[in-house]
Design brief:
mainly alpha; 6 helices; cell inner membrane; transmembrane helix; ThrE_Dicarb/AminoAcid_Exp
C-alpha cells in the first residue's frame, strides 16, 4: 500500500509540473501508482527488471488509453506521469558512478539494464497504444458494415 501511495505522489507531482488540468491530476497519479504496483508484483515473482518494467508500462498504456477515452483527453496526459516511477534513474546513476570508479564490467551490466528498461517502457506504452488503435479500427469496421437484407 505504501508503494502505491508513494508512486501516486510522485506521478501526481509530475503531473502538476506538466500543468495537467486539475480534473485529470488524480487519474494521472493513480496511473503511476498502478504501474508501480504492477512492476513490484512481477519483479517479486520473476526477479526480471526489464520484463517487469515492460508489463508495468503496458498496463500504464492500457490505463492511459482507457482514461483518455473516458476523460476525452490525450493519452499522454496519463501515460507520461504514469511512467515516472518506472524510469531507471537510479540505475543510470549507478552506471555513471561505476564508470567513474573504474568498475567497467559492472558499469556495462548496469548500462545494459538501463537501456533495456528504457526500451521496455517505450515498447510497453507503444504496444498498448497500437492494440487500442487496432481494436478501435476493427470496432469501427463492424459499426460501418452494411447490414444484410433478406
Amino acid at each position: 500500500m505504501m508503494d502505491f501511495v508513494l508512486a501516486f505522489i510522485g506521478s501526481f507531482a509530475g503531473a502538476i509540473l506538466f500543468n495537467i488540468e486539475r480534473k485529470n491530476l488524480i487519474w494521472a497519479g493513480i496511473c503511476g501508482g498502478i504501474s508501480w504496483v504492477v512492476f513490484k508484483l512481477f519483479y517479486i515473482q520473476t526477479d526480471r527488471v526489464v520484463f517487469s518494467t515492460f508489463l508495468a508500462a503496458f498496463v500504464c498504456g492500457v490505463y492511459s488509453e482507457t482514461m483518455a477515452r473516458k476523460c476525452k483527453t490525450p493519452a499522454f496526459v496519463f501515460s507520461i506521469p504514469g511512467i515516472y516511477p518506472l524510469v531507471p534513474g537510479i540505475t543510470a546513476y549507478t552506471t555513471v558512478r561505476a564508470i567513474v570508479e573504474g568498475r567497467l564490467i559492472f558499469a556495462v551490466n548496469k548500462g545494459i539494464e538501463t537501456i533495456g528498461t528504457a526500451g521496455a517502457i517505450a515498447f510497453g506504452i507503444m504496444l498498448a497504444s497500437t492494440v487500442f488503435q487496432f481494436v478501435s479500427k476493427v470496432n469501427e469496421g463492424y459499426k460501418n458494415k452494411p447490414k444484410a437484407t433478406s
